[in-house]
Design goal:
Shape: elongated
Strand content: under 5%
Number of helices: 8
Protein name: Pectinesterase inhibitor domain-containing protein
CATH architecture: Up-down Bundle
Family: Belongs to the PMEI family.
Structural class: mainly alpha
GO molecular function: enzyme inhibitor activity
InterPro entries: Invertase/methylesterase_inhib (IPR035513), Pectinesterase_inhib_dom (IPR006501)
Keywords: Disulfide bond, Glycoprotein, Signal
Helix content: over 70%
Number of strands: 0
CATH superfamily: Invertase/pectin methylesterase inhibitor family protein
Number of domains: 1
Order of helices and strands: HHHHHHHH
Length: 256
Amino acid sequence: MASKIFFLLFLLFLAYPHQHACVNGDATLIKRTCKNTKYYNLCFSSLKSDPSSPNADPKGLAVIMIGIGMSNATSTSSYLSSKLLSPSNNTTLKRVIKECADKYTYAGDALQASVQDLLNEAYDYAYMHITAAKDYPNACHNAFKRYPALSYPLDLARREDGLKHICDVAMGIIDNLDCEQELPSPNSEFERFVASKFEKVSKRASLMKKSLMKMNEKMDEIIKHYLKSSKSREESTNEDDDESSEEDSMDSSETE
């Protein structure tokens, strides 16, 4: 799912022929672009290994990096949602995991919004959406901190750092998008093709969200049922203890 979304993002980028001075998506451009980011090695290796980077200008490199961030956020949300299906009876842990899965979904949505901002050359809004995407993992981490008995999973910590670093790189690239670009009208046939792809992927994304919502609702029902059963067992135990105490009291009275 994430790879298809990423492919769509680059199709949107390619819908506009690049014939201005900034076009030169070779290793030199990637190096120059990445030198202005916080994590040069991550930036260079990610962009250099992407097959679409040779056709990209600086804005295209930003789109590619955002697509990588979307893949990270989506896969992390799916990873966390799968943990909700574990047989564990720790309702607090599952509640926190559900909250984290939602936060990473929101991060992916924010990154997706930033792509449209880039296409509209609304760089401030793109930066704002990427900043929001970077901050959502903090909410997840803080959710674990609210319960000292819960330990923050190492794998989730690595995913958190990964998404934050990717966002930092994307923001560094956007900071340097100072080359004015006047884009020609897109090819109508290709535009229709991209629009068709976008519609299909949007429908699939919607179905995936609905599926996750149903899964979360099911987990809520399981948690409520578990809590209700636990409460019933506790009340039953208390009643048995009360009856036992009354019997002991009666026996004691008879003995006297």
